[in-house]
Amino acid sequence: MANYGMALDYKNCINCKACEVACKEENGVQLGADKHRIWVGVKDIEGLWPNLSISSSTFEPSQCQQCENAPCQEVCPTQATHYTKDGVVMVDADKCILCSYCMEACPYDARYVKEDTMTIDKCTFCSDTRLLRGETTTACQATCPTKVRTFGDLDDPNSEISILLAHREYKTLKAHLGTKPKLFYLI
Amino acid sequence: MFVLAQKGMQFVEKFIPMRHTDIRELFKFEKTPLNILVAFTTFVFLILFVIGATNYFIHGHHAYGVTREHPWGLMIAMYIFFVVSSTGLCIMSAIGHVFEVKVLEPFAKRAIHGALVTLLSGFVVIFLEIGHPFRMMIYNTISPGLTSAIWGMGVLYSLYLIFIVIEFFFLLRHDHKWAKRFGIFGLVVGVAAHSNLGAVFGFLVARPVANGIYYPLYFILSAMVTGCYLIFLMYGFKYKLNFPPEMQKTLVATAKILGLLLAILLFFEIWRMLTAIYGGMYDRSTTALHILKSAPFLVGEILLGILIPFFVILFSNGKAIKTLVFTSFTGMIGIFFMRYDLVHDTQLFPMQMLKTREYQLPPSFIEYTPSMNEIFIALGAIGIAITLYYIGDKILYLETDPD
Question: CA–CA separation, B288 vs B282, rounded Å?
Answer without folding.
Answer: 10
